[in-house]
Amino acid sequence: MPANFNPFSSLLTAAVAGQTGNNYDQLLDQLQIALATSGDTLDDLLADVASNPTAPSLPAPPPAHAGATSFSNFFSTFAGDYTLTVTDVASEGVSSAAATLFPLNSSRVVHLKTNGDVTIDAVGKAITYKAVDYNQDFIGAADTENQLRYRTKDTNAWLELYITYKPSTGELYVSPSGFLPNSEGFAALKGKIFVPPPVAPAEICTTADDKLAFTNSPTDFCGFTRSASATNGVPHYYQFTSATGVHGVTWVKFNLSADDSTVESAVIENDEYAFGCNAVGTTPCEGITITNNGNYVQFILNDTEMSPIFGSTQSITVNGLLMHPLL
Fold this sequence. Notes:
It is a single chain. By secondary structure, the protein is mostly beta strands. The chain has three domains: 1-61, no CATH class; 71-192, Lipocalin (Beta Barrel); 211-325, no CATH class. It has four helices and 19 strands. It has helices spanning 23-38, 42-50, 71-78, 97-101, and strands spanning 80-91, 107-112, 118-122, 125-129, 134-139, 146-152, 159-166, 171-176, 185-192, 211-215, 224-225, 228-230, 237-241, 251-256, 263-269, 274-277, 288-292, 296-310, 316-325. A hairpin with a 6-residue loop joins strand 14 (251-256) and strand 15. The longest helix has 16 residues, at 23-38. It starts with 22 loop residues before the first helix and ends with a strand.
């Protein structure tokens, strides 16, 4: 079983053209092979389990969450990361452009933030709809279908993002459009969702020189004090390490642009957890400033969001400062 596996709420990413299946998909592959090898059918297996008095019972699937009552209530309720399946895709002008970003039947992660920002992880590109850039309207109630629409502010005519949630079935539909330059791209994504479990109270750590503070972090992943820093002789790369802790050494790694002015990707990881930005399948790196005065390189993180890579399902926000001496 994959770590922390839940048959109802664990994300299933199926293997399709251009996409490798995740651990859940590979588990199902193993089950299929085992059934084929034994000559049994899935119905045989289920009957065997049902007739075995010592077999553990599966947990009941969680009920679908009630709908929201307003635009802000929707995002405060459903903020989180969801894997949805591409059910439709089309584009005008360049026929294959949208299909390249959203392969049909592929799984894509949709990030809903509490402020109304929506980011969709397309192939090789994160497409973000910032709430402040659009006019929005909301229709619905707790027991009825929720509909959210993002329209362009200049004319209020172009519908750029459409979100629907059905509390009767727990299905979430996200339909982005307008994401192709000079061409109308459209995609439709859907899937049953489970509202992320309540996040433990934000872990707040002292922020000072050579320290980082994490909010919304797992309870045993909080704070970072630099033990060492290095470049390892790799151009445009810096890494910082902590002393060995409960989950081993924590590493903070920055890959920079060719002129060392911006962070192209960043990862914070130890033996138990990993979070990142601009890494594969993670949120873009925002809020990181680099300064270099010839004596040291300084990385300032200001409300930088990092997506979970492993060990957690909840993104964290990072603040603080790290310094690497040059002399």
